[in-house]
C-alpha cells in the first residue's frame, strides 16, 4: 500500500511541472479572443472574418472555431440585408446625381465645374457607403439576437402543453 501511495505522489509531483503548460494551452483554447475578433468586426468585414474562422477550423480542427463560425453565421443574412438596403439608397442617390450631371456643355470651364461638382457628390456617396461598411457589428447582432430570443420565447409560450396524469400506480414487487 505504501508503494502505491509513493507512486501516486511521484506522479502528482511529476504532473505539477506540466501544470503551467496546461494553463497555457487552456488560454490558447479560450474562445474570448475569438469572440472579440468577430464582435469588433464592422458589418462589411463580417463575411471575411467568418471565412477566416472557417479556414482556421479546417486547419486546426477545434470545435470552438466551428461553433463560433456557426453562431455568427446565423447573423450574416441580416447583416447582408442591412448592407443591401442601405446600398440601394446610396445607389439611387448616386444615379440621381449622374442624371443631373451635364456632360454636353461645349464650354470647357462649365464642363470643369460640372465635373468637380459631380466628383464631390460621388465622394459623398462613396463616403456614406464606406461609413455603412465600417459600422460596428455589435449593435446589429445585439438587436437581432434579442429578436431571435424573443421569437424563441414566444414559440415556447405558444407551444401546446401536455396534460400530465395525476394517477399514481403502485406495482407490487415480484
From TrEMBL:
Output a single Gene Ontology CC term carried by this record. Answer: preribosome, large subunit precursor
Q: One MF term in GO for this entry?
A: ATP binding
Q: Which domain of life is it from?
A: Eukaryota
| Annotated GO biological process | ribosomal large subunit assembly; ribosomal large subunit export from nucleus
Keyword list (alphabetical) reads: ATP-binding, Nucleotide-binding
PANTHER family in UniProt = MIDASIN, MIDASIN-RELATED
Name of the featured protein = Uncharacterized protein
* Highest classification ranks of the organism: Eukaryota, Fungi, Fungi incertae sedis, Blastocladiomycota, Blastocladiomycetes
